[in-house]
Task: inverse folding
């Protein structure tokens, strides 16, 4: 893991402090210590066979050359259909949808295409790590508003104060990684009002849109006046449990998507063709698939949260995503990084210190994130190991 204190040779100044992601670092530690890996958020089972079969069929049918820059029409049509069916949103597949290499590229292309040096981007902390890096690569400056308390609320006055004459974008994530927070309608209305008043574009990362257990997923683009200023991002990695395929998308007004597409053109030009065929098939799956996915993951949430509570942790049960957060002070912990570095050897479990997702590290020092997108027996084994650690202390 690289912290802002380490200087990495050769690395450009704007990327100092971003050396190795916490996810790679913690997965490497899990492999080295043979621990149960509840750090990096990737499922340990495959997604639906219809989806993988369609990708395999596409390879065999010879769909192996560059797809169009914006993505295969079959996938753009499927994305338009999916957003209309699940979210009541209407997008023109030709002008308002862009297929990307994962949500990560959609985020990077949006930041690079829409902002630059001298501009400011507001986001909430803790933030998903590629936000800070993407903003840094664009040359813009980030301004963070801290989510506080057990339900990770923001102070509307603090948010308002974060806007300046240089604010170009607000980068939102709901359901929110790492906290599992699902932004409520009144919170989204506050954000929307300020962005409309200040003529700011919203980039909203909704990769966990099908993983909401309590309350509803409300795309901010569906609030009055927001459709024309919002880029909505999602990802097949999170919807279909194929995180290694790296197919994501951005939907929004044609002129904003055109700017994102220009940046994407020179990042990767186009994204994996056969996978696009697979994802297109998946997006047409029936409601039972999406309901089952949510129900299964909710069961895993409850299973892991019960295990964490039994092991003595105060658990902040997430309303969405596949991550649960604990307060380590409940078992005598102080610093999340120290705790997570010691945990594999103390208990044989890997988790992620939430504090690395903050500018204001003190605000997240006591928080640690566990992923529950794993087989039940893996979650049970982690819980058993954590309980053993508690009993031994
Ligand atoms: N945004 C969030 C909030 C995430 O948790 C992740 C990790 N899956 C991504 C974006 C990146 O998605 P992808 O793997 O599709 O690039
Ligand atoms: N999104 C995943 C997580 O939060 C990890 C993705 C990555 O490794 N970059 O755990």
Result:
């Amino acid at each position: 893991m690289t912290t802002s204190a380490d200087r990495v040779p050769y690395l450009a100044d704007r990327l100092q402090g971003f050396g190795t992601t916490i996810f790679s670092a913690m997965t490497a530690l899990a492999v080295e210590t043979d621990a149960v890996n509840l750090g990096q958020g990737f499922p340990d089972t495959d997604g639906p066979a219809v989806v993988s079969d369609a990708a395999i069929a596409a390879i065999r049918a010879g769909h192996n050359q560059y797809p169009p820059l914006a993505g295969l029409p079959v996938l753009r049509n499927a994305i338009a259909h999916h957003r209309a069916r699940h979210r009541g949103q209407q997008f023109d597949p030709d002008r308002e949808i862009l297929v990307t290499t994962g949500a990560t590229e959609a985020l990077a292309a949006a930041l690079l295409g829409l902002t630059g040096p001298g501009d400011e981007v507001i986001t909430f902390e803790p933030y998903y790590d590629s936000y800070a890096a993407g903003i840094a690569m664009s040359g813009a400056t980030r301004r963070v508003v801290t989510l506080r308390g057990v339900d990770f609320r923001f102070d509307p006055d603090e948010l308002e104060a974060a806007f300046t004459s240089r604010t170009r974008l607000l980068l939102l994530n709901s359901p929110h990684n790492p906290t599992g927070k699902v932004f409520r309608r009144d919170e989204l209305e506050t954000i929307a009002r300020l962005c409309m008043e200040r003529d700011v574009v919203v980039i909203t990362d909704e990769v966990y849109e099908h993983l909401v257990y309590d309350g509803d997923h409300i795309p901010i683009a569906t609030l009055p006046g927001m459709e024309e200023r919002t880029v909505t991002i999602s990802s097949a990695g999170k919807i279909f449990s194929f995180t290694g395929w790296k197919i994501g998308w951005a939907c929004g007004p044609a002129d904003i998507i055109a700017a994102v597409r220009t940046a994407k053109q020179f990042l990767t030009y186009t994204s994996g063709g056969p996978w696009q065929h697979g994802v297109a098939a998946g997006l047409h799956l029936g409601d039972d698939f999406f309901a089952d996915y949510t129900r299964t993951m909710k069961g895993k949430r409850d299973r892991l949260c019960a295990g964490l509570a039994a092991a003595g942790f105060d658990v902040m049960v997430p309303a969405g995503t596949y991550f649960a957060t604990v307060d380590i002070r409940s078992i005598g912990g102080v610093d999340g990084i120290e705790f997570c570095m010691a945990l594999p050897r103390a208990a044989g479990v890997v988790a992620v210190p939430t504090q690395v997702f903050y500018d204001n590290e003190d605000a997240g020092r006591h928080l640690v994130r566990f992923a529950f997108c794993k087989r039940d027996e893996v979650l049970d084994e982690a819980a058993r190991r954590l309980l053993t650690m508690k009993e031994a202390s």
The mean pLDDT is 96.
